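Researcher: Quick test of sequence recovery. Tokens follow.
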């Protein structure tokens, strides 16, 4: 039985995140024999949202699928691309009629992989239920893809953990994004699903979750609500490396955290 190797990158934040992807991604792909690269790009343009230009830039670096989250609508110019580019995803549980695709298919070796993007509801917008949306998509794709990978873009660790158990045995992997802080709870669950609460951030190290630390500290101290700016300086790539069997069961999950 064959295997595929998947690299999932945590939220790419602004120019520092894009630059380190440009400079380091292909080395990671070669070193780990990666077959498929997935990255969350919802903070890739100036720290909030993504533009058509930035999406094309990220695809050119070797990213196969770009997922997103609650900031996907911040750049109005992205709407046309959402409707035309199936590999640029928005959370599938936005209400019926929202532009774009919530999942896509990618051929990897002999396997057909389905990548699903979902968004949580705790401390976030009250959009459609991500649990029921997964059920709906799963029934639609289960006979079309042997491997199913989910980016669950959510705030609450409890909601992420519940979703991990909910999809166990159906999804090959579910990883969390959005909080920009990599967690150390990676596991292969009993049903064969790889899980981690958050894969972290690809962006400036000298920052507060990718943003200028001085502005962030002042906002906490003074309650000023000043606009955040993307931090500069040395960046890090955070994410996970997955090894998945062609029958859909996860074999291994490893954290990636490299400057």
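Model:
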């Amino acid at each position: 039985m064959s295997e595929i190797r998947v690299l999932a990158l945590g939220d790419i934040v602004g120019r520092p995140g894009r630059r380190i992807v440009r400079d380091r991604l292909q080395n990671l792909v070669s070193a780990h024999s990666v077959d498929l690269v997935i990255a969350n790009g919802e903070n890739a343009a100036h720290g909030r949202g993504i533009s058509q230009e930035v999406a094309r830039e990220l695809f050119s670096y070797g990213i196969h699928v770009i997922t997103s989250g609650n900031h996907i609508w911040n750049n109005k110019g992205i709407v046309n691309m959402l409707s035309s580019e199936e590999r640029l995803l928005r959370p599938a549980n936005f209400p019926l009629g929202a532009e774009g695709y919530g999942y896509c298919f990618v051929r990897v070796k002999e396997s057909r992989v389905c990548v699903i993007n979902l968004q949580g509801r705790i401390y976030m917008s009250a959009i459609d239920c991500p649990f029921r949306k997964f059920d709906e998509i799963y029934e639609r794709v289960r006979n079309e893809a042997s491997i199913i990978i989910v980016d669950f873009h959510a705030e609450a660790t409890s909601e992420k953990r519940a979703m991990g158990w909910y999809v166990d045995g159906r999804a090959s992997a579910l990883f969390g994004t959005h909080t920009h802080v990599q967690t150390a709870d990676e596991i292969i669950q009993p049903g064969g699903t790889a899980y981690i609460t958050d894969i972290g951030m690809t962006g400036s190290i000298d920052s507060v979750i990718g943003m200028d630390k001085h502005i962030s500290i002042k906002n906490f101290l003074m309650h000023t609500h000043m606009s955040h700016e993307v931090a500069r300086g040395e960046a890090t790539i955070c994410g996970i490396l997955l090894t998945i069997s062609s029958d859909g069961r996860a074999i291994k999950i490893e954290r990636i955290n490299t400057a």
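The chain has one domain: 3-258.
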